[in-house]
Amino acid sequence: MPRVKPQQKTAERIFHPLSRKAGQLERETLRKAKLAAQVAKRGKKKTIQADRYAFFLHALPPDIESLSLADLHELIREVWLTRHDLALEEEQASRRRGRPKSTKEDKLEEAKRRDAEEYATGLELPDLTDARTVRLFRQWDGSDVNYLSILRLIRVSGTHPDVIHVARVGRDKPAGTSDRQPSGDGEMEVDKEEALRVSRPGSTMLSMDEIPV
To answer: Where do Basic and acidic residues bias regions lie (predicted)?
Structure first.
């Protein structure tokens, strides 16, 4: 039988820690680590965004074309900002007197604080006062974050409840698709940070008991 030669291991090159090559390798490693961290951060941000939008999608009453601005603020105050209240009350009730707060209770209180601060300074979400955006929003499957790029986004705040800031007009096609074509629906092009005073006739005045959570 022919003899099989054992495979020879390639010796790993070791560079002097102060050499130029070692410095290049270190910079390349750091660059890759930063890129990986940025990708992970973007992915986490998109997941948080998708979870938030899915909440508002399920909170929308099924039989309306759009919300009035007053109803949108009511939805935020009565449903979005209170979504942790039940879990927080249960956590507080289970804590024995004199015992420190649990980690879960601390996190719930921190989440409520962040939500309140964000609403005071400006909460970004799909424009639920716009019928076209609501119609497109209802077609979302709840998971495809690229689809969200076609939605018109606004920022509203509890500090200035009569003002809508347009954060993004919305694409004609979802992100990742090519051959963009004009939408032909006559949608107004606005500046990214333009503040619009809203005066939409006909409030829908919905009961918060009818909103699914």
So the answer is: 102-116
